[in-house]
């Protein structure tokens, strides 16, 4: 395999070859995971459990679906259909499946550094710096845009389903709730997944579209900025979005920046990330950005917005501001560029 296929410089983990994709036998996967032993256990969800394994010298992740319900069978088929042809650097690769008797298993490439969720935990021994959070946001956005461009709605974008390498490259995972659409319109379905990430129209009416994914992504952005869980005890009885919405609108980002990254963040990048999160979390789906604009905005934030203080008057140079202004219209129309710059400069 070529050096380009190495996806983690720390553990030298590599992406499998495309020709790997095939049907597996239960015996193969049982042996690869050492009988689905506890020492190989990775995670668990409503669908069942995920185990690490080794097959032909490559690390794999085997999702073992529960097989006692129609819902589980439907989710299994949905995941196979959604990922059968999906190939992108920010989407986890489905290597194959097993439908043998009552067994339903999916075989994925193994992602070496777990999900985003524990890395944001207050108990994490190595808190994520701002640059890594920006990298994660970029990778997740590009993976989600690829899915939307291929008519796939993920429906379960959460910090648990954003998988990381040790270099903080992102691979979106867990497509058990994914829905393939032929048109860009909303349809009504049963509400499933993590309720904290549900868009208002999904929670109230079961309406799902690419904009419900955008809302969930906005929640992930908010967690990257704050370092909080969706139901963090520091929020009291409020949810994360309810607690942060007014501050996002007013640009008062300094109130909820994760203190563990205070020495690494760029004030302007944080300001515009807050604006971007606010645009993704709009209650009206028609007013939310689509992922094309989200990816473009993130690119401008990373490459164009830098905080440069010059001289006694603290003149701020913000390259790329005009491009962001076109995409992010969440602030008041009467607000001038200088007011935005002053406010964003106060986020330190």
Number of strands: 14
Rg (CA only): 21 Å
Query: Could you name the CATH homologous superfamily of the largest domain?
Result: Transferase(Phosphotransferase) domain 1
Distance between the termini: 45 Å
Mean pLDDT: 79
**Number of helical stretches of at least 4 residues:** 11
CATH topology tier name of the largest domain = Transferase(Phosphotransferase), domain 1
Total number of distinct structural domains: 2
Query: If classified by CATH, what would the architecture of the largest domain be?
Result: Orthogonal Bundle
Would you give an account of this structure?
By secondary structure, the protein is an alpha+beta fold. It has helices at residues 26-32, 70-83, 116-120, 130-149, 200-205, 210-226, 240-250, 267-280, 291-304, 321-327, 337-345; strands at residues 22-23, 41-45, 48-55, 58-65, 94-100, 103-109, 152-153, 162-164, 170-172, 179-180, 187-188, 207-208, 309-310, 315-316. The protein has two domains: 3-109, Phosphorylase Kinase, domain 1 (2-Layer Sandwich), CATH 3.30.200.20; 116-345, Transferase(Phosphotransferase) domain 1 (Transferase(Phosphotransferase), domain 1, Orthogonal Bundle), CATH 1.10.510.10. It has eleven helices and 14 strands. It has a six-stranded mixed sheet, with helices on both faces. The longest helix is centred in the middle third of the chain and has 20 residues, at 130-149. The chain starts with 21 loop residues before the first strand and ends with a helix. Residues 306-319 and 330-348 have low confidence and may be disordered.
